[in-house]
Amino acid sequence: MRFAPPNPLRIADRSSGLNSISVRSYNERLVLSLLLQNDGISRMEIGQRTGLSAQTVSVIVRSLEQEGLVKKGKAQKGRVGPPAIPLSLNAKGAYSVGISLGHRQTDVVLIDFVGAVKFHTTIPNSSRTEGSNHTQFLETVRAAIQALPSNRERIAGVGLAIPEDRYELNLAPYGAAERYETLGSEIEADLGVEVYVQNDISAAAGGESLFGAAKPLTDYLFCYLGARLHNRLVLNHQIFNSNAIQSHDVGLLYLQKRLEENGLDTSALWERGALWPDFGTVEADWFDTCVSQLEQSMTALSQFVPVTTIVLSSYAPKDICEKISKRLEDRMDGIRAIAGSLEVSPKAIGAASLPFSSKFMVE
Amino acid sequence: MRTVLCYGDSNTHGQIPGGTPLDRFGLDTRWPGVLQRELGDGWHVIEEGLSGRTTVHDDPIEGAIKNGRTYLRPCMMSHAPLDVVVVMLGTNDLKARFGQPPSEVAMGMGCLIHDIKELAPGPGGNVPEIMIVAPPPMQDDIKEWSSIFAGAQEKSHRLALEFEIMADSLEVHYFDAGSIIECDPEDGFHLSGNAHKALGVSMAQEIVAIGWVDNG
């Protein structure tokens, strides 16, 4: 051992890029996970929270700095002693593409290493008659990657969020589920980028947990307000996923039906980032229906686990989620309801966070 | 009080570029002095620089006393307990008489790291924080030293990477002095007063960045 040549694995290659990505050690993941969760912590804090020695942290941080994944902040003068240097993730260190296949349209985003959306577009789903629009899918994904200023080797991967809820699948174009299954491998073959597939609601929950309103939370009920209302239980940062989880018909589809019955225009409902017009009493009634369902879910859940926080995520305007959260809080004592902070497309951003969590974080 | 041992060669001794080992910068100008000033009262910086010191070689001309390995152990024992051991060596190993490639110089450095870990002169008999410093590359023009250091200039540019691989492999701290300073053109391989200052300031930052829990 002592007189053997040094192990050059970690520093293997000095070229920039994420080439050594596949052999990330557990300790490196541990450090990156901490940095994804905490901005600006010192090497000492990393050591204290991971139990790694100062020298091990030093080696890992240096190699992550060289790879461009981590950067030093300005020295902070502490209360005592010399200044400490905070470390953060380098936003430009890695990028990821997220694709969310909805029942009406598909969202494609490109996010940087700290979750900022650098590119977003919405493309229509193919209809029954048109056949496949895979070509357009692939072109859009390529466009997302080309939106990057420089190197494509900084792409950690593509995340694909796929609906599994049978009601929503029934709304999607004929044969959608079968096409979704092959889409991942097609993108992988076309772009040579790794694709990670996940249930769309779990993806949104992962996105809010990594980059959104749920970042500081450990235990909560995650609710996604889409065409229908979906739930996921998150305990100790772990998202419980199951196909058996029920969704509820109190979502935007329900609202659409009510609005149509009242002869109101519903086009704003499915637009990304659009402001909704005042829907008057229909909206107020819908709020009540929605809040009742959330209350029911929370009450049922509280019989089994002491979860008192609920996160409501949606691509609908943030003030809608905020209004529903406020009403739920008014109705239930001791419950904290938080509107998600991922706007435009939480599912797509969540999908984009998948390659990051798979490649850089510990489970 | 925390203690830092600075173990090095003429560039830790503070030899003035173009001078002899007797021409030495003042205590406050030499990088260990700068380091002491930067770290402040809670720290004790020990300067152990010897002109001509190698990592692990007895020098056939200058003598066995230049061997960094044989002196390191008694040196650490004299000053223990040590919180940090900084080792900046390697340039003298590149002398033509030793015929060493940069990778072998790094192996010598690795040997010293093992010795430090084995002796464990840290508080409570633990392994101290070990910091390997790669010396800045030599200038092409090294005046009358060119035959003694024949071929060394090119090798000196490859020391940093070899040292870093060794530091990573053995999990110790590492600093590349060449990232902040250059050798003085006066003789091409010694450090100017300004370089000492910059090095001392950077070393203080590196040592602080290790992170120290204040246990009184």
Features:
heterodimer, A: 363 residues, alpha/beta, five-stranded mixed beta sheet, 39% helix, B: 216 residues, 7 helices, hydrolase (chain B), SGNH_hydro (chain B), hydrolase activity, acting on ester bonds (chain B), SGNH_hydro_sf (chain B)
SSE layout:
The complex is a heterodimer of chains A (363) and B (216).
Chain A: H1 26-37, H2 43-50, H3 54-66, E1 70-72, E2 87-89, E3 95-101, E4 105-112, E5 117-124, H4 134-146, E6 155-162, H5 166-171, H6 176-191, E7 195-199, H7 200-211, E8 220-225, E9 229-235, E10 238-239, H8 252-261, H9 280-302, E11 309-314, H10 318-331, E12 336-339, H11 346-360
Parallel strand pairs in A: 3-6, 6-7, 8-11, 11-12
Antiparallel strand pairs in A: 1-2, 3-4, 4-5, 8-9, 9-10
Chain B: E1 2-8, H1 10-13, H2 31-39, E2 43-49, H3 68-79, E3 84-88, H4 102-119, E4 129-134, H5 152-156, H6 159-169, E5 173-176, H7 193-209
Parallel strand pairs in B: 1-2, 1-3, 3-4, 4-5
Beta content of chain B: 5-15%
Summed over residues and divided by their number, the pLDDT of chain B gives a mean of: 96
Radius of gyration of chain B, whole Å:
16 Å
Major beta-sheet overview of chain B: 5 strands, parallel
Structural class designation of chain A:
alpha/beta
Regions with little confidence, pLDDT below 50 for 5+ residues of chain B: none
